[in-house]
Amino acid sequence: MSISYHELAPEHFSEILALGNLVHGDNYLDINSINNLYERSWQDNINASWVALNKDGKLVGFRLTNAASQWHPDKWCSPDKWPVDASRVCYFKCNTVDESVRGQGVGSTLLRKSIASAQMQGALAGLAHIWMASPNNSAYGYFSACGGVVIKMHPNKWQHLCFEDNYACPVCDDLCTCTGAEMLLAF
User: Which InterPro entries does the record associate with it (predicted)?
Assistant: First the structure.
């Protein structure tokens, strides 16, 4: 299958919303959060977020990345344990690939493109909260294989979204109890 890669743009928002909520659960993303993530992708006229399109122009994957200067560590972060100053760490919000193209290198290509953009923005590392309940724990395996190192495990990482945004985790019955692995990938 022929895949092309492009910087995230507003014309991709509706397809990101559909694919993101299909994979991660209803209300994981909404149009406001996508717009906010898009705005925070930029630094020095460089966009760190990328999408993958099939030969028909259909979105089959995306990597949402906040530039190092466009986000701040929260209670789910342990910057005192990071080997890089927090001001030089970008944030990998999510990497999502359509089931039809999984295992074909789309996710790792999106990550490489985001890393290259983040490096041009001045980042030395990227942080992600890896969903430990992904099918076959593929998210952890993928991010580890790319060089990500576990900093800390955060039980109930996305539970607050159930209250705040009516998030419906695709693996939990009511409230999300999934663990997020805080992982750092040095460039």
Answer: Acyl_CoA_acyltransferase, GNAT_dom
